[in-house]
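Task: sequence in, structure out. Protein: LysR substrate-binding domain-containing protein.
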Amino acid sequence: MELIALRTFQAVVEEGGILAASRKLNTVQSNVTSRIRKLEEELGAELFFRKGRGLELAPSGRVLLDYARRMLMLERQTASAVRQVGESVGELRIGSMETFAALHLPSALKAVRASHPRLEVRVSTDTTSTLTEKVLDHKLDCAFVAGPVVHPDLRFEELVVEELVQIHATGTDPVRLPLILFREGCAYRTRAIAWQRRLGHAVADAMEFGTLEGILGCIAVGLGWTVMPRRVVEQSAHAADLVIESVPPDIARIPTGMIALREGPAMPALKTLCDGILASTVRAKAA
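Result:
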């Protein structure tokens, strides 16, 4: 039984048909059909009932789907474990929110480099929801996101509680300005919109940007307002042009930490990374 056949079978089930599965797998429909037919011949069982142009999962198919998912997850876990050979050789794929990357990652990555000099570290930034999906899909080994994150397949280790504040340019009235936000899926975005509605702002529309610098730069020249971690604002090159205002605790306090697969392989570099972030947080509080 080949893994590519199981992957194809899973795609047909999850995408709802041969055509959609072929698009997801970037192959032609005939390849998908032949793999399913070969799998049925090998198992001696019909996996789907054909109903017109559609497919319905047969009882044998439902049994196989459970095993296929477990086998494919084991395959991904195996690949991840192989990348993490020993304590200092292999690859570590890290995801992070932009704000967290700016505040906390530099010193932590320096600690990883010192303790695991031969480890290849890859870092990418995105929204909390997208990063969570990538960890679940084994595209990232860990990610630093706004929490709390509750998922049966993930563990969440809280590292810091960020304080969100409202910011706008000196001399502007945020009530009359649009929100400036990160893309859909950002945890700060959700809280900013909730705060906007609570205040009953006159302007209900919003602008979206993909970068932290883009958001802060536009706010600094009076184009809008937003909610952002206090330390990000205070350390920004635009700080002198911004007004910082506190918001209620239910909006302001947001736990932030690392997510990783609950059943994932042990990675010594992850502990080094978390220890580095905790150390940098302690130093920031003492400063």
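The chain has three domains: 3-82, 87-160+254-286, 162-253.
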